[in-house]
Structures are given as structure tokens and as C-alpha cells.
Design brief:
The complex is a heterodimer.
Chain A (H helix, E strand, L loop, with lengths): L10 E5 L2 E3 L20 E3 L1 H17 L2 E7 L5 H10 L3 E5 L9 H15 L4 E5 L10 H9 L3 E11 L2 E8 L2 E8 L2 E5 L11 H9 L3 E4 L40 H14 L5
Parallel strand pairs in A: 1-4, 1-6, 4-5, 5-11, 6-10, 7-10
Antiparallel strand pairs in A: 2-3, 7-8, 8-9
Helix pairs in contact in A: 2-5, 3-4
Chain B lengths: L19 H14 E4 L4 E4 L2 E3 L4 H15 L2 H21 L9 H12 L10 E7 L4 E6 L3 H6 L8 H15 L3 E7 L8 E7 L26 E8 L3 H12 L4 E5 L13 E3 L3 H4 L3 H4 L4 E11 L4 E7 L10 E3 L2 H14 L3 E4 L5 E5 L2 E8 L2 E10 L7 H4 L11 E10 L2 H8 L5 E9 L7 E7 L3 E9 H7 L3 H10 L1 H7 L3 E11 L10 E2 L2 E3 L8 E2 L4 E2 L1 H21 L4 H4 L2 H7 L2 H7 L3 H4 L8 H14 L9 H12 L3 H14 L1
Parallel strand pairs in B: 8-9, 8-17, 9-14, 11-19, 17-24
Antiparallel strand pairs in B: 1-2, 2-3, 4-5, 5-7, 6-7, 10-13, 11-12, 11-13, 15-16, 16-17, 18-21, 18-22, 19-20, 20-21, 23-24, 25-26
Helix pairs in contact in B: 2-3, 3-6, 4-6, 7-10, 7-16, 16-18, 21-22
Classes of the chains: A alpha/beta, B alpha+beta.
Chain lengths: 272, 652
């Protein structure tokens, strides 16, 4: 761990969000919004890959991992899990005034938190969340901070004080380098997040590693955050009813079955 | 071992021969752990039975196996070797120091594998092949299997490859594959094996080992220490943690399940007596389902049931009270009490091994960089404990030592339950079923009433199930469909199905209860009484947890957690009536092994009842004649009936 005043390795901030478990996703039939209460949740899976990337970098270069998140106090569960997996400390920005924020105030809030932590060399985010899938927040932080960004990276390394990221594109891979500080967003599934350890869980139980900040602690004005600070307006949310399959099985001899199938498809105008 | 090393000569791997004192020391350790019971013809190495036979016998076996099953024999042999390697490693290992760097890791591997030569494996040497890829080459000069086999086109030391893999896996704490690349039987001067990381098995789902991470920042290497680590937050573990925390020990209570009670199964009833001491105010908030005021025992045949039932409010009075409970609620409650008293509860972590140094338990081990040190480890991880084996306190479980317990939870409205069982709102019933309940196999059925559900299940000898080729869930279904049970569960909704092993032999299967820095409590110690009319486990578990805390306190006062100081555990177990009760019923498990008890006698009794109660206008006979006729028809001699009666009376 870094001794005060003497910086041995990079300080990495990992931004995470707690999301409902993918297999448990439920849409409220009345409000048409995602159910978030009473549903088992987890750290957004791409954010887990970002955290694993950070842990691997710390193993190689030393330094410190600070985990940041914005959300209700129930997010403590995920921050504690991040510490149990190996992060050094965590901050939750939790404030009623932040309710209703879209990705713009969220990115601003996390930016302020990164600045308050101070001396952050690298900000890691997941490529996007599994519950909203915007992919805005990482680039938003880079924009607010005015620093470089490399998005959708499947491999991240530190070379001579610079960040090198490999991003998969359609016909190959690009390798980018950027000076630090820098924001990198990490591809979902690019590594295998480790499990919490016993010693990690003991550190969580000993307490004092998760700190709560309010919007005011970060110097955020009410006009900048929440619904007021959010340019996005949700006009309508619809669920799509998928037509169910008919599941007809032709059990005749293959040659007969094929012609029957073709007839049926022609009749329904699936094929000409 | 000079010259055996395959690396370039400029940097020879350190030969493990450079440590002859260690070899001597290991030999001493081996001889100290070797016990011979000459009259009985038994050899034991660290509580595991040993059979000494000529290598040729094994080579013959291997040849036959290869001839019969072909290529897959390689896998069998390798797996058998791996199992042995893991066990042997736990005997010889003197520390779990995480080596860093492949050079040091190779030396560490060499030290871990070298002891195999003491068991007759030959002379081994280890050297790294590819540093980055964590690949190692193990050479063996004089493989007993290669020498015994003679010439062969393929490598033959499958068993040894597994042996090396098992040992290396334990030493390094990660999955490894070991393959013999060249063999003496192929005409080579020596056998060579390649050890490499397992290519496909994921690390997170296997045994809980995680890829070793030696953080440059030193993260994770910070040692955590507690006075006592308790493994398992069931009734034994939580009782121990609670009692220890009250005695001002720093205590870590580790539970494998997501929460206490989620991995535990029991019939459904807890005898309350230890709680009066452990949590004197337990009545206030203990999650009691119902206080048992009605006890019954019934013998079933396929259609009929003959029962006795005892109904008395006295059953629920004072220290003799017993209550029905649900484990997720009860275990969570007791663990919470331990936390409130100051113990630290950590859930979702499985402890795979003990951290041992020089034969003394120093703590618990999850992965090389994930260990916690402790002056004392209390093993309370249930019937299928692996740690008692790792600690060398007990050999593998045998089928005859365990039964299989299954349980269904059937939801019914409280009013329906009360009506069907004749209970008031807080009262509960406990019932035991013999005979056809278990289809005549050794074991029996149980039924307990909860607030708004029934616990219905069976405990059946796993030996019998295997022998009769029956699936326990099929027996359970037949039991549930029995007319006598159907009228009780009718209309209910099956909400939960669970199963677990049950220690069955009581005192007969107890491991050594105390070692250097280690104690065993609860089901792990075999503390369970089944005398045919009562099943006791949770109460003995709690009492043994408290006794473990007593022993720790006494040992602390005596100067430390040495085996000698902890030996007083047995005395405390007696003081808390755990061992005394187990000894009182020590004969019962053997008595209950008598199959007549589960098959013939229930039929006999039901038959007798039919003779007595059926009035159809034909000539009646005296009761004694009915008994005699029934006995004759059953095919059991009067002598064995009489002897069973006498034995039964003595063992109960």
C-alpha cells in the first residue's frame, strides 16, 4: 500500500454500478420501468471486468485501487464486495438530490468524486451497464475532466508511464496509447473477475473502508444534478410482446415432410 | 540427484539431496505416524489404513485394467494417484509458504514431492521448464511401476503422474496437470513428467482456489489473526463462537453458505436444554416453530399403521422442552447472537484446508495469499467435514458410517395442521415411523409440525440403499404416499426438498477430538444420537461447541493451545453430557443394524394388531396364541426374538 507522500504505483479509480442480476430482470407491468427493489443484484458485470483489470494492474505495478459509485445506500453491498475482491477503499455518493439523474449528472458526480479522491492516474469503467446500456458515463468522465479516453478495451497495460489499451474492432484489433491521467472503459467478459477472499471479507467486517459522500460534499449544485440536471426526457417505455411459436412438427417421411413444410411456408407467405 | 536435472548445467536446480536432515526428519515423522495393530492385522498411516503389497501385484492390476477398459484406464489410475498424492501431502507438508518466482516455486515443489520417495516412489527431482507458463519437469530415476512393468511402448507410470499432480496441487494451491512424457519402460534412462497448469478447468469453481496473486503493493499479504477461527456457523460453530466471544477471545466464524443455515439440513426438532446455559433469554426471540407436546411412534406396513402416541403438556416444560424449527431461521439467530457477543461472522467462504506448520495447526487456508492465522481452529463444518481428514484426525468417511437424510417441507395452513394433529396454536407434534417407511431398510421416517408447514423425511442407511439399488427420493415418495402419511400431508404444497449425510455410528465413528491447535465439534465429531425413538444432533452440537469454548479457556489459562492442554476437551464434553450420552447409547447403532427391526417386527406387530382387533364372527383366540402364531408365521425364531428384545432393552 502506498505510504503517504511516497507514490510507488498508480492510483486507479474504478467506477461501478449495482444492477439487478441479469437473469432476474423484471419490468414492472404498470410503470414499465425496471424493477430494482427486492430483486437480487450484483456489480454490473462489465464493471467487474474493470475491477479485475485494476487488480491485475496493481499486482504488476503496485499502487492503490479506489472504487467509486453513485446510488442508494443499498449499493454498499457491491462496494463491500469490491473490497472483498481486493480493492483498497470505496466511496459511495448517495444523496436524495441525485435521484432521477441521467448519464450527464452521473458522469459529473463521478468526475467530482475522482477529483476529491485526488491524484488519480487511471479511471476504469465497464463499457456499459447491463441495465441501461448507454455506455455514456466513462466517456462523460473523460469529457468533464478534459483527459484522454480509450473505450472498449479488452487488454490494458501500463508502459513507461503511459496507458496502452487494445480495443477489438470488426476486422482486427487497435492498440492505443495515452498519457495519464486517462479514462479507459473495459470490454465485458475480457477477463475472469476473481472471487472475494476470506481476508478481503475480514477487512470489510473490520469496517471503515466504505465512505459516504453527499452531493454537497462534492460541491454539486442542485441545478446540476437529479432530474433538473438531466437533459434526457423519457417519453415512453414499451415492452414488446413477442409472438409465440407455433411449434408444428411434420412427422411424415422426409420427402413428404419437406414438401408439406414448403407448402405451409408458402401458404403463410413466408417464402414466395 | 545430481545429473538427473534436465535444465542447462549453468544453472542447476538446487538438488533436494542438499537437505539430508529434512529427509531424516520426514522419515521420523513417517515412522511416528505409522501405527500397527498386529493382532488385527491393520496398519495405519495418519489415521488412514494402509495395505502393503508387492509392486508386481499393482502392475498386474494395471495391465488387466488397460486390457479391459483400454485408454480410459489412464484416467482412473491418474485420479487414484491424485487422491493419494493429496492425502500424502497433508501428512508431509510442514508449511504453506507461498513461494514467489518460479525458481523458488520449483524448490518448494521439489521439497513437497521428495517425500514421495519415502513411500517407495523412487528418487524425484523438479526443475522449471518454462518460467512464464509455470511448467515444470519432474524426473524420476527408478520408478517402481516402470521397473515392474518391463518394456512398454507407452509410458506406464500413470499412478505416479497422478500422485505428483495431487501433491503439487496441494503444495501450490492451484490445479495442475501431470503427464508422463517419457518412461523408463520405453528404454529411457529415467522417467520424466511434465507438470503444467490445468488448461480448461476454471479456477473459481474448483475447490475455491484462486489464481495466486502476489501483489506488488503487498495487498492481501497482510496477516489477519484471531485467537480462534471457527469453521462452520451451524449450531456447534455458532455456540462455540458465542461462548468464546463471551470469554473475551477474538473469534472469526466462517460459513460456507450465503447465510448461516442455508447449507444445513436436519429433521426438524431441537432439544432446548443447552440453550438455557448458552442463551438464557432464548425464549424471548428464538425462532421456535412449535413446542413439542405430542410424541408418537408408528410401525408401518404397506397399508396399515400401528402407533403409540404420548400427549402431555409436561413435554414442553422446563429444560426438557423441545421445539420444532427451520434451520435458516434458527442458525441465523444463533450466529447473530455470536456476532452480538463480539464474534466476527464471514459468510460465503469455504475453508479448504488448515494452515499447518510442523504438525501444529496455525490457522485456516483458502489460497496461498488468503490465509488467517489463529491459536486455535475449531472444526464444526458438519457431517462431511474435509478438515478433520486434512488435520489427520480421521480417515475418509465409510458408507457404513453415514446415513442419507432427506426432508420435504410441505406447506399447510396452521389451522389445518392444528386440526389434523389435535394441537393448539403453539403446540407441535413429533412422529417417528418405522418399517415400511423406509421400505424395510435400516432407518426410519420422521414428521414434525412447524407453524405453517410439516417437515417430512427419512434417514436411511446409505449401505442398504446402495445394496438394494434404491434411490432415496423414490423411498421418500413411497413414504409420502402411504395412506397414514397422506391423510396428514394431503392438500399441502411441497415448498422445499433437501438432503444431507447423517453421521450414524455415534461414538464408533468419532475422530480424534483434539490436536495441536485444533478441536472438533458437532456432526464433524459424529455427535449424533439415534436410539430409535429420539434423534438428537443440534443439542449435542451446541453443547459440544460450548465444551470446546470451555476447553479453549482452560488451555489459555494453562499457557497455550497445545494438544496436551486441549486434551481436557473430553472432560468438558463429559461435563456437558455430550460424551456421557453418546456412551450410554454406544450399543444402539449396532443394535439398530439388525434388519429384523425394520422389516420383520413392524410387520409382526401390525399383523398382531389385525388379529386382535378384527372381529369377523370366526372363533376368537387368546392374545398369547395370536402372538405365537404371528411369530411363527414371520419366520423368526423365538430365540432370536427373545435375544433382540434383551439386546434392545440393554442398548436403549
Amino acid at each position: 500500500m502506498t505510504a503517504p507522500g511516497e507514490k510507488r504505483g498508480p492510483r486507479i479509480a474504478v467506477c461501478i454500478k449495482q444492477v439487478p442480476k441479469a437473469q432476474e430482470l423484471q419490468v414492472d407491468p404498470v410503470t414499465k420501468t425496471l424493477k430494482r427493489v427486492g430483486v437480487p443484484s450484483e456489480i454490473n458485470p462489465p464493471d467487474q471486468n474493470a475491477l479485475e483489470t485494476a487488480l491485475a494492474l496493481r499486482e504488476k505495478h503496485g499502487g492503490e485501487i479506489v472504487v467509486l459509485s453513485m446510488g442508494p445506500t443499498s449499493f454498499d453491498e457491491s462496494l463491500e464486495r469490491a473490497i472483498a475482491m481486493g480493492a483498497d477503499r470505496a466511496y459511495l455518493i448517495s444523496d436524495r438530490n441525485l435521484g432521477g439523474s441521467d448519464t450527464v449528472p452521473t458522469a459529473l458526480t463521478l468526475t467530482r468524486a475522482v477529483e476529491k479522491v485526488g491524484d488519480v492516474d487511471l479511471v476504469l469503467c465497464g463499457e456499459e451497464t447491463t441495465d441501461a446500456s448507454t455506455g455514456h458515463v466513462g466517456p462523460g468522465i473523460a469529457g468533464h475532466m478534459g483527459i484522454p479516453q480509450i473505450t472498449y478495451c479488452s487488454a490494458v497495460s501500463l508502459v513507461d508511464g503511459r496507458v496502452r489499451g487494445v480495443r477489438m474492432i470488426e476486422d482486427g484489433a487497435e492498440t492505443w496509447e495515452a498519457p495519464m491521467p486517462c479514462v479507459v472503459t473495459v470490454d465485458f467478459g475480457c477477463n475472469k473477475p476473481r472471487q472475494p477472499t476470506l481476508t478481503g471479507k475480514i477487512r470489510v467486517k473490520r469496517g471503515g473502508l466504505v465512505t459516504h459522500w453527499s452531493a454537497a460534499d462534492l460541491g454539486l449544485e442542485p441545478s446540476q444534478i437529479g432530474l433538473k440536471g438531466s437533459p434526457t426526457i423519457v417519453a415512453k417505455v414499451d415492452t414488446v410482446q413477442l409472438p409465440s411459436r407455433q411449434g408444428k412438427i411434420f412427422e411424415e417421411e422426409p420427402t413428404i415432410a419437406v414438401s408439406l413444410l414448403l407448402d405451409a411456408l408458402r401458404k403463410d407467405k413466408v417464402i414466395p | 540427484m545430481k545429473g538427473a536435472c534436465p535444465t542447462p548445467p549453468k544453472k542447476p536446480a538446487k538438488p533436494s539431496d542438499a537437505e539430508p536432515p529434512r529427509r531424516e526428519e520426514l522419515w521420523k515423522l513417517l515412522s511416528a505416524n505409522l501405527e500397527a495393530d498386529l493382532p488385527a492385522g491393520r496398519f495405519h498411516l495418519a489415521a488412514q489404513r494402509l495395505l502393503i503389497f508387492r509392486t508386481e501385484a499393482f502392475v498386474d492390476l494395471q495391465k488387466h485394467l488397460e486390457g479391459t477398459v483400454g485408454l480410459s484406464s489412464k484416467g482412473f489410475l491418474c485420479l487414484a494417484g491424485e487422491k493419494s498424492g493429496r492425502e500424502d501431502h497433508s501428512l508431509f507438508r510442514d508449511s504453506v509458504e507461498p513461494p514467489s518466482g518460479s525458481e523458488a516455486e520449483a524448490a518448494f515443489l521439489g521439497r513437497s514431492i521428495a517425500p514421495l520417495s519415502l513411500l517407495g516412489g523412487g528418487r524425484f527431482a523438479v526443475a522449471p521448464v518454462d518460467r512464464g507458463a509455470q511448467r515444470y519437469r519432474v524426473t524420476l530415476e527408478n520408478s517402481p511401476i516402470a521397473e515392474g512393468t518391463g518394456e512398454s511402448k507407452k509410458p506406464v507410470c500413470r499412478l505416479l503422474a497422478g500422485w505428483i499432480a495431487g501433491t503439487a496441487e496441494r503444495a501450490l494451491g492451484r490445479d495442475l496437470l501431470c503427464e508422463e512424457t517419457s518412461c523408463r519402460s520405453q528404454g529411457k534412462p529415467r522417467c520424466a513428467f511434465e507438470l503444467r497448469p490445468m488448461p480448461y478447468r476454471s479456477t473459481s469453481c474448483h475447490k475455491g482456489f484462486y489464481s495466486p496473486c502476489f501483489s506488488a503493493s503487498g495487498h492481501g499479504t497482510m496477516a489477519e489473526h484471531f485467537d480462534v477461527v471457527v469453521v462452520g456457523a451451524g449450531p456447534a460453530g455458532s455456540a462455540a463462537a458465542l461462548a468464546l466471544a463471551r470469554k473475551k477471545f477474538s473469534v472469526l466464524l466462517v460459513e460456507r453458505g450465503r447465510a448461516p443455515g442455508t447449507k444445513n439440513v436436519f429433521g426438524g426438532r431441537i432439544y432446548a436444554w443447552p440453550l438455557f446455559d448458552l442463551v438464557p433469554e432464548w425464549v424471548k426471540d428464538c425462532p421456535v416453530e412449535r413446542l413439542v407436546t405430542k410424541e408418537s411412534l408408528a410401525f408401518l406396513t404397506p397399508e396399515a399403521s400401528l402407533g403409540i402416541s404420548f400427549d402431555s403438556p409436561k413435554l414442553a416444560e422446563g429444560k426438557a422442552a423441545s421445539f420444532t424449527a427451520l434451520r435458516p431461521k434458527f442458525d441465523a439467530w444463533l450466529a447473530k447472537k455470536a456476532e452480538e457477543a463480539g464474534a466476527m461472522l464471514v459468510t460465503g467462504i469455504r475453508i479448504d484446508d488448515l494452515w499447518r506448520e510442523g504438525g501444529k495447526v496455525k490457522g485456516v487456508f483458502v489460497a496461498p495469499d488468503d490465509r488467517v492465522s489463529a491459536d486455535l481452529v475449531i472444526i464444526a463444518e458438519g457431517a462431511t467435514s474435509t478438515l478433520v481428514r486434512r488435520a489427520g484426525l480421521k480417515a475418509d468417511l465409510e458408507p457404513r458410517e453415514v446415513s442419507v437424510g432427506v426432508k420435504e417441507t410441505v406447506e399447510l395452513p396452521p389451522e389445518t395442521l392444528q386440526e389434523r394433529f389435535g394441537l393448539s396454536e403453539k403446540e407441535g407434534a413429533a412422529a417417528i415411523y418405522a418399517g415400511y417407511a423406509s421400505l424395510g431398510l435400516r432407518g426410519g421416517g420422521f414428521l414434525y409440525t412447524n407453524k405453517a408447514s410439516l417437515s417430512l423425511g427419512l434417514v436411511i442407511s446409505s449401505e442398504d440403499l446402495a445394496r438394494k439399488k434404491l434411490e432415496v427420493q423414490d423411498v421418500q415418495t413411497k413414504f409420502r404416499m402411504h395412506p397414514a402419511i397422506q391423510k396428514l400431508v394431503k392438500g399441502g404444497k411441497l415448498v422445499e426438498y433437501s438432503a444431507h449425510l447423517v453421521p450414524e455410528l455415534g461414538k464408533g465413528m468419532m475422530p480424534r477430538l483434539a490436536g495441536d491447535g485444533v478441536l472438533v465439534a458437532g456432526d464433524s465429531a459424529g455427535f449424533l444420537i439415534n436410539n430409535g425413538y429420539t434423534f438428537r444432533g443440534v443439542d449435542l452440537a451446541m453443547a459440544s461447541g460450548m465444551a470446546a469454548a470451555d476447553a479453549a479457556e482452560a488451555a489459555r489459562a494453562a499457557g497455550g493451545m497445545s494438544a496436551a492442554n486441549l486434551a481436557a476437551y473430553e472432560r468438558f464434553l463429559r461435563a456437558r453430557n455430550v460424551l456421557t450420552d453418546l456412551e450410554a447409547f454406544a450399543r444402539t447403532p449396532l443394535y439398530l443394524k439388525n434388519e429384523r427391526l425394520f422389516d420383520v417386527y413392524p410387520r409382526l406387530l401390525v399383523d398382531l394388531a389385525e388379529r386382535v382387533y378384527r372381529v369377523d364372527g370366526t372363533a376368537r383366540e387368546r392374545l398369547i396364541d395370536s402372538v405365537l402364531k404371528g411369530t411363527n408365521a414371520s419366520g423368526v425364531s423365538k430365540l432370536s426374538l427373545l435375544m433382540d428384545l434383551v439386546r434392545g432393552a440393554r442398548s436403549m
